[in-house]
Structure prediction request, 198 residues.
Amino acid sequence: MLAPEPIPLYLFVEAREKFGEPLASALADEGLDEAVAALRSFALLDRETIADEHEPSITTECIRIHRLVRQVAAARCEGEARDTVRRALIEALAAVYPEDVWRDPNTWPRARRLDALALALVGGDPVPRSAEKSASDLLDGAGQYRQYALAAYTRARPLYERALAIREKALGPRAGRPRGGAAAPRARAGDLREGARP
Prediction:
């Protein structure tokens, strides 16, 4: 269900409880390494260390799922099972996505690694019920990353708007900003234009 991008292993370590049982228990301790080793033995995925493109000294242990395996697995997951898997992945990504993207440049390598995965899950398809807050937080974080790290204001605005729309639909029009971060007030019309100063 994830985008065909490198998937950081810390997603399964730091947010394993979001995947529910029995997977959460299976990933505990050495379980993740054993699962990755078993899947590698069948050539279903590869494990690699990826250096950050802007900070080569920062590396992340990742897995990369074979594209055909990914497509077959996604095609077999339908209906309520698909929503359950997407809900767990959205909540797990929201749990590991950095909250201080708008003020802490040290979080940018992590945001960069998770960005494509997050947008593939919440960028277009309707969000599964009960995952709205997490999806809104992910979109808000992705917007903050674009606004503050990339200075891509016109690319940040639709993410903020979708985050707010999801949040208001789920929690009502007085729900407030996603995550309560300082970046959300900048999502007003006219505030996010190329060349504007944050």
Confidence is low (pLDDT under 50) at residues 180-198. Helices lie at 10-14, 23-26, 31-41, 67-76, 79-96, 108-122, 132-149, 153-171. The CA atoms of residues 61 and 139 lie 24 Å apart.
